[in-house]
Amino acid sequence: MCGIVGYIGSKQAPSILMEGLSKLEYRGYDSAGIAVHDGTKINLLKAQGKLVNLAKMLENNQIQGKAGIGHTRWATHGAPSDINSHPHMSEDRMIAVVHNGIIENYMEIKEELSAKGYRFVSETDTETVAHLMDYYYKQGHGFLESVFMVLERIEGAYALGIICKDYPDTLIAARKNCPLVIGKGQGENFIASDIPAILHRTREVYFLNDNEVAVIKKDSIDIFDRDKNKVDRDIFHVNWDIDAAEKGGYDHFMLKEINEQPKIVQDVLSIRMKEDEDEINLEGISLRKDDLKNIDRIYIVACGTAYHAGLVGKYLIERIARIPVVADVASEFRYKDPILDERTLLIVVSQSGETADTLEALRIAKRNKARVLAIVNAVGSSIAREADDVFYILAGPEISVASTKAFTAQVVAMELICLHISMETGKMTKAEFSAARAELNSLPGRISEVIQKCGEESKLAEKYINSKNVFYIGRGLDYLISMEGSLKLKEIAYLHSEAYAAGELKHGPIAMIEDSTLVIAMLTQEELFEKTLSNIKEVKARGAKVIAIALNGNDSIKSQVDDVIYVPRSGWMTAPIIANVTTQLFAYYVAKALGTDIDQPRNLAKSVTVE
Ligand code: AGP
C-alpha cells in the first residue's frame, strides 16, 4: 500500500528512483512522484495515474540531483490527483516528504498549523508532516531533531522518507507499523518499502523497526531508537534471485506466478518432509507434544486470500487433529476482545507479512501472552519478526496483486502443520501419515498437469465472458476453495461473483439464479459429490449455466452440466489445491479476454498496510 523509495549517493537520483518505483508499482498505482535535491534546492515532479505518466513528465523536465525520494500511491486521503500525489512539500520547498500509512490525528495538526498561517494545498494526511517538519525546523531545531519532534506528535502508521533543502547530503527515514528497508551500497545508500525496489543495486539491507529513525548519507547509515540512542542492526543478505521479481517472458506476473507453483510446492515439501521419516520437519517451531499440551485454544487469523488458506487450516486441524479452531478475518478479530491467554495459539497467515490488521492481531495476542506462529512469505517482514515462530512458505516475491502461488504454498503449509499436530497428538497413525505424505508428494506433478492443459479454462473464459453474476459453489474443502476462486474473479476481472456453501443456496441466494447465471461447481470431495450434484440440479432447473470442476474419470457429471474442467484425481486433502489452480487460470483468462489490468487491478494494492 504505497511504495517508497529513496536514494543518496554519487549517481543521478531520478533514474534510480524511477527504477525503484517501477518495482514497487504493485503497492499502489494511482499516482507517482519524485523529489530530487540538486545541491541547492529540491525539485519536484508528480503525476496522476500510472508511473508511465511520471516517466513522460521526466522526459520533458530533466531534473538532476544525487539525493531524492519517490513514491507510488494508493489513495487513502484524497482522490488520486496530481496535487494529492507524493512527495509533499512545505510551502517554500524546504522539506519534502513521502509517506506510506495513515496519520490519524492529521486534522487536529492541520487546524493548528493553518491557524499559524500554513497553507495546505492537498487533501492528504501526509502534507501535515511536511508542514509540521517545516514548523519545527524553522523554530531552530535541526533536521533530525525536527523529525523526532514530528514523530512525537503524529499518531497512526507511517513509513517516511524525508529530505531537507539545507541538508543535500542527508536522507532521513522513519517507520511505525509500515515496512521500510534500508539498502547499503558502496558510496550510496537506499530506502525502500520492499526489497525488489533496490535489489538491482544492493543485496545488503537493514530492516528498520517500529519507532526507529535512520539518518542516511552516501557513506553512512545511523539508526536511532525513539529515545535517540544509536542502535546496532545486523545486516541481512538477500539471497533470492533478481529474476524472481521479473516477468521472465510471461505476459503477466500472475501467469508467471501460477506457473511457479509446482516448483514452490516441491521445494517446501522437500524441506519439510523426508521420505524415511514419520514426521514433519518444523525446525524449532514449538508445536511438539509438550507444547501442544499447554494449548487449549487455536485461532487462525488473516485477511483476504490468506484468510481462505486459514479456513482450510481450520477445516483440516479440526477434521484430522480433532482440535477446535476459530478462524477469523484480522479486521474483525482485533476489535472483538478475543479470548487470549498463555494457553492460546494464534496462527497468523500473511504473504507480505505487513498487513496492518494481521500485524495488530499478532500484537494483541502477544500482549495477552498467547503464542504466535506466523505462516509468512516475505522474509524479514514485520509479522515474521514479531511472531514467536515462523513457517516461511518460501514462495519468492509475489508481484501480482492477486495472490496465487502464496495461497497454494499457505495451504500446503497448513496441511503440513496439521499433519504434524496430528502425529504429535496421536490422532494419526503412521500408515495414515505415509498416505498423506504420498498424496502431498504427488501435488507438484498434478498442479503441472493442470497448468499444461490450460486450454479448457481459456476456452470457457471466452465462452462465459459476458456473465453478469457468477456463483462458486462447493461443499467441505470445495466450498473454501470456492471462496478463493470467487475472490480471484472479482479482483482481476471485476465480475460480480459470490461463493456459497452449495447446501446454503436454497436459503436465499438461489433467488438470484436466472437464465444464464454462471455457476461454477467444485466437485473434488467424493463423499459429498451426490449432495453437490443435487444443488447443481437445483440451479440448472432455474436456468443457470454450470461449469463443473471435477476429478478425472468422473464421466457421469458431463450430462448434468454445460461444461466440465477435469483435474487430476487426488485425495480429498489435496484435490482442492489442484482444483484451485483451475480457478486461478479461469479468472486469469476471463480478465485477459476482458482486457483488464491483470497484475495491477483497479482500486487494489498488494500490501495493505493501513486498516
Ligand atoms: C489476494 O489476491 C489479495 N490481493 C488480498 O486478499 C491479500 O491476500 C490480503 O490483502 C492479505 O495479504 P497478506 O497475505 O499479504 O497479509
Structure description:
It is a single chain. Helix content is 36%, strand content 22%. The chain is α/β, with parallel strands linked by helices. It has 3 domains: 3-239, Aminohydrolase, N-terminal nucleophile (Ntn) domain (Glutamine Phosphoribosylpyrophosphate, subunit 1, domain 1), CATH 3.60.20.10; 251-450, Rossmann fold; 455-594, Glucose-6-phosphate isomerase like protein, domain 1 (Rossmann fold), CATH 3.40.50.10490. The mean pLDDT is 93. 2-deoxy-2-amino glucitol-6-phosphate is lined by residues 303-306, 350-352, 355, 358, 401-403, 491, 607-608.
Give a quick rundown of the structure.
The chain is of the alpha/beta class and 611 residues long.
Q: Which small-molecule species are bound to the chains here?
A: 2-deoxy-2-amino glucitol-6-phosphate
CATH class of the largest domain: Alpha Beta
- What number of domains? 3
> Mean pLDDT score, rounded?
93
Structural shape = globular
- The fold-level CATH name of the largest domain is Glutamine Phosphoribosylpyrophosphate, subunit 1, domain 1
The CATH homologous superfamily of the largest domain is termed Aminohydrolase, N-terminal nucleophile (Ntn) domain
Tell me the number of strands: 25
Q: State the share of residues found in helices, binned by percent.
A: 25-40%
Query: Which spans have pLDDT < 50 for at least 5 consecutive residues?
Result: none
Q: What about the largest sheet? A: 8 strands, antiparallel
**End-to-end gap:** 11 Å
List the strand order in the largest sheet: 3-2-4-1-10-9-11-15
Hey, roughly how much beta strand do the residues contain? 15-25%
The number of helical segments is 19
Radius of gyration: 25 Å
- Helix-strand makeup class: alpha/beta
At CATH level 2, the architecture of the largest domain is 4-Layer Sandwich
